[in-house]
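Quick one - inputs below.
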Amino acid sequence: MDALDEKFGILIDPQPLPERHRAFQTWERDFAPNSLSKLDNATADSLMWAMHEISSGWKLGKVLIYDTKIIWIIDRSGNLWFAIEELVLNGKPTGYPKHTKLLITVSQSKLGHPALINCAQARIAGEIYFDTNSDPPIWKINNLSGRYGRHNSRTPVHLDNVVTLFKGYGIDVTPHFQRNTV
Amino acid sequence: MVHRIDKMSFAHLKESDFILLKQILSDDKQRDRVLAELLAYLSFWSPDQWIDEEHLYFLGLDICLVCPSNFHDTVVDAVRNKIFGPVAKIFVAGFKRPTSKEVQVKSPPSKTELDKLLARLKTHFDSVVEADVKAIVHRYLVCIESDGYADDLVDALKKIGELLLKVQGPMARRAAKLTCDILQEGLKWKSDNYLWILWGRGLVKMGVFEAAELVYWEAIRRFPWDMYLRSMLIEVLECQHDKYNEAFNLARESFRIFPDSEAITNQLAMFLGQSQNASDISEAINILTANIKDNIFPKIGALASIMANAAGKNLLGDQDVELVVNRLLNEGQLLGTVSNNLINVHKAFDVAHWLWRKHVVLAPNNIFSKIQLAKTYILLGGKTNLSNASEILKKLNTVHLNDTIIRNFLAKVLTLTGVPEDIEEAKKILRNTMKITPEDVYAPCQFAELLLSSGDPSDRQEAINLLKKTREVNKRNKKFKKLLELIEKTPGGTSISTELMKEEPIVADEDQDFSIEKLDIDLNEAVPLDIIKLGTTRRLRFKMDNGSEEEKELVLTQVADMLNDAPLAYTRLIAVRYGIGEDQDQMTSFAFEFERALREHDKIALEGLSEKYTRFTALIIVAQAMFGDVQSAAKIADLMSVDDETLHPAVRALKRRMRPHLVLIRKGESPESVVNKGKSDILVALHDANESVLCEFALAA
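Output:
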C-alpha cells in the first residue's frame, strides 16, 4: 500500500451496485462535464471566492448553488477533480447543472463521478454542498459517491485528508463521512 | 429557514437532514408522515423513466441507518407494495444491507496458504483439492468485495489455472471446468489478458472448441495488441477441421500485423508448408528464415518439417535450399542443427545432403560443411556415396592430419566399404588416433567394434581390454560405461560406435491440449451468452476483412439479423462500419461517432471529436493523417511517445499496433510516406483500437 493509498484510499474501479453489472453509464464513459476542473491555484481561487461570497450571503450565488451539487474525486495520482453535477437528457449531456430537487429533472440522468476521470480507477470521491440547514449555513464535504466514495475500504481519515487538501488552497469545508453500517 | 423533511429532501440528504430524520423516525407519532413523504418521493420514478439506481440504493442504505429497527419491516412492506417494482427493489436492496456485525473486512489468503495449495495441486487433483481451490478463491472474492483490490486474486488464478490445466487422466476435464469457473469469477473484477488465455485453454481441454474460439475472438477484440492470443486462436481454429481456411487466413492477417511473432511466423509457415504449391513452400521457407539467426531454435522444427515434406512431394526447389544456406552461410553450427533435425526427426538424409552440398559450393573453404557432407553421404549409403565420402575425407585428412573428427569419419567410411584393405587402413587410422588423442571415445569404440566383427574370441577379449583401458581415462562418461557392460554381456558384438554416434533426436513437446476428444457440451452452457454474441461479431468482422465476396455478403446479412435480437454495442458498432441499419446512427458515444467519421472520411467530424474527446486525440490524429492531413502525420511520433501508464487503453492498443510504422519514422522516413504506405494496416489498427474502447470496464465474463 503506497502513501496515496493510505491518504485517500486504495484505487478501485467504479463499483457496480450489488447484483448489477454496469458500474457506469455509457455517457459517463464518453463525456466529461463542461465544468470539469482540476484543483490547482487558479481553480481553487475561483472556487474559494464563490464559496466565500455565497456563505457571506451573496443571494445570486446562493440561488445558483441551492439545488445543485459539486462533485469531486481523487484520481490515481492524488489530483482532485471537481465539477458541477451536470444533466444528461436522452443519453446526451446538456452542459446544464442537474437540479437535484426540481421535479422535472429529478429522475433524469447525470454525469456522475466516473465521468470526471473517464471511468478510470480512482480513490475517494464525494460531494461539496452548502448546507443551509446548518446554523450558520456552512460548506460541507461528504463521501457520497456510490461508485468510489461509499466503498467499505474508505475511512473518515481519507475524507479528512481531502479537507486538508482543500485547506492547503485556502478552502474551508467541514467533513461529513457517511458510513455504510451502523 | 425552518428545517423540515419533505418529499424532495430525499433527493439530496444533507448532514443536517440525517440528524433531523433520526429524530423524527424515533418518534412513533411522526414517523408515518416521513414514510409518506418518502413514498411520494419514490413514486416519481415510473416505468418509462431512467432510474438512478446509485442514488436509490444509497438512499435506502442511509435511511436504514437512521431508522429504528422496529420500523424496518413497515418501511420495506410499504415500499414493496406501493412503489414501482424496479425502484422498490433497488431501494430495498440498499435498505436491507447487512449491518456492521455481518460486514467484516477480511484479509486475503496468505502467501503461505496459497503456496501450500499450489504444492498440493502440483502432485494431485481430487475432490478435496477441488473444494480447497473453490474455498480459497471464495476468500479472495470476499476480500475484493470489501476493498476492490483484485490483483491478488488475478495472480493466484494465474498460478492455480496453470496447474489445473496440467492435470491429466480422468480428472482432467473436471479440473478444466473448475479452471473456467474460477477464471470467470476473476474476470468479473479484472479483465486480464492472461486470464482470457487460460480460459480459452480450459475450454479446449474440456473439448468445447467452438466456445474456446469465441472466447479468443472476444479476447483479441479486447486486447488487439496481444499476439499470443491470436496464436492461440489460430490453433483452436486449426484443430476444428472445418475451419482450416479460416485458421490459414487468420495466420496470414496476424503475420501482417505481428511480423516479429515467432509463434505466428511458425504457424503461417506450417500452413504454407502444407500447400501443394511450390511458391507457397518458398514463401514458408522465406518467412521462416528471414530473421532466423535471431532465434533459430523455435523455428528449426517448422523449417525441417516443411523442407522434408516438400522434398517428399518434389516441391522443394534448389532456390529454397540455397536461401536457407545463404541465410545461415556463416553459421555452420546453426545449419548443423537444422541438418540434425532433418536427419534425426524426419530421416530426410537427402535434404540434409542437399543442404551441405549447397553449403560446400557457397563456402568452399569451410571444413565443417565438408565433414557434414561426408556424413550425409555415409547416411545415404551405397557404394558411390561411400566412395564420395571417402574421397572428401581423404582430401581433408591430407591437409588436417591431426583432426580427430576427420580421421574417425574416414575410418568409419573405410570400415563400411567392407573391402579388407580399407578395413586394415581404418584400423591403422584408429590406432593412430588413440595414440594422439587418448581421451577420444569414438576411436576405441570403433576399433573395438572392428575387433568384435572378426568373430575371433581373442579379438573380442582385446576389444574388452581396450574399452576397459579407455574407461580409465573417461571415468565420467556414463554412456560409454553402459556400452561396455552391454558388450561384456552380449557375445557377438553390438555396433557400439553407431550407438555412440547417435544423437538425441529433437522431439517437439506434445501439446496435450489439442489431443482431447471433442465432447458433447452445449456452447450455451460453456460460456455466457454475451461472450457468444461478442465473439461471433468479432469473427464476422474478420470474415468481412479477409473473406471472399460471397462471405462478405453473408456477413452483412448475419449482422443485420443480429441487430434484430437485442444487439450489443459492439454489433451496432460493426453495423455502423458497414452502413447497416439507420438506428445505429443515433448512437452518440465516441466509438460510434469515430466509426462514422472513419466510414465517411469525414475530416470535419474528426475535428469536432478531437475537441470533445481529448483522451482519444491519438486515434483522431492517426485517422486524420490517414486521410492525408500532413500536419497530423507529423504529430504521430510525438503522440505515440507518451508513457503507456497515462494513456487510455484504446490509445495504448493503437500505439502498440503503430510500432512498426513508428520505427520507420524514427529511422528517418517521412511520416507522410509511412502513413501512406501503411494505410490499410493503419485502418485495421484504428478499427481494433476503437473496438477495444467498448465494454472497457463492464463485466468481463
